[in-house]
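Here is one chain, start to finish.
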Amino acid sequence: MSEAKRKTTAVSKEELNIQKQFTQRVNSVINANYSQAPLACVITYGCQQNVADSEKIKGMLELMGYGFTENRLEAKLIIFNTCAVREHAEDRVFGNVGSLKKYKRENPDVVIALCGCMMQQKHIADKIKRSYPFVDLVFGTHVIHRLPELLYRAITGGKRVFEIPDMDGAIAEGLPVKRDDGSKAWIPIMYGCNNFCSYCIVPYVRGRERSREKKDVIKEFKELVSQGYKEITLLGQNVNSYGKDLVPQVSFAQLLRELNSLDGDFRIRFMTSHPKDCTKELIETMASCDKVAQHLHLPFQSGSNRVLKAMNRHYTREQYLELINYARQLMGDELSITSDIIVGFPGETYDEFKETLSLVKEVKATSLFTFIYSPRKGTPAAEMDDPIPAEEKSRWFKELTDLQEQISAQQMALHKGKIYKCYVYGKGKLADNYVAARNDGNLIIEFEGDESLIGTFQNIKVIEPLTFVMRGEIVKEK
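Its structure:
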């Protein structure tokens, strides 16, 4: 592929400069109408990519002159950044937006906005337009960088603003970021998805895969390290596909090796990986790079080859196990495996579900993210026959979670007495005087310690493994 043939995915500098002008215009409106900074409340649903998007939204709002609050009933701007992956998340959004009707009536100057994956679906946007007339602004996943312009139109134009272009999306570099956490950070390295799993709405709402230029990723990573961030997670709908669209091509493993070689005391994490694109090169890179966490989140979704084919996953149970076995061969017991499973996919039988249970026993994951199938309008799976009643699927689901709880406890027990270099990331939950840390394998260890330890690496000895967390004690250097 030549440079001339590569599809341009970058937002132009001219467009970004236009948005800077709208930022100043919004700031002027705010200064003319408020004696102090009005507050914005940004509510985020869904995955880490949405969290990263919300941090950009907050970065732009801060430049416009907004302060921030977590209490939506004291905000002058309320933004819901939505998730479309499961029905439950959508229902929560509709319920929470509906509850603001009275607040909006009593405070007509409040701006209510919705963005994110839900809004990229036409039938959802139409429902908001029809049934929620008090919502002022709706915009899709591909125009976040245009928030200054869209917000200016919403607060000055006297009309509702709906901006949901049907496009593959673009990459806007240089947007301001207001990070939620001072101890860990997210870096999206690519956007979109080309896989079209039959149950998944993501490719339809996030667009096709598009990678950030390697130099831009490395630049942002260096800035975070210089600011003191020690846990940095690389994000993408499918990070294993990173760089395939770049010229020249760059593999995800190559990117990891370059980031690993940078100076500084930090740990690199990444998610999410797709088994069909998970290479031995990536596994070898994880094993050889001392700053890359030995934690592999590799969703297998089902243990049945027939169901995997119906899901359009493009790998088999046997291929998945080959990857896991190779990873464990190189990284041993220190490797932590986590995965996703869908229970009750349309047409799945109980015998096929039992194949999933048997795979769970073979993989011995540290933990699983388990979901009962949720139909997504517009996906192939939503049109498939689904004869198994919800009550039966719920029984299967409990059978799976009971099994994994036993396996998680067994996996945790293997760590008793071991000492790990852990990153202390926040307050603990086991006791008021505990802080929480993660080891290289993403396992949580809580121990007695002062909050001044947050943001540092500490050597922690595991004293008592529990089911989903471990109790430890700090090991003082002699």
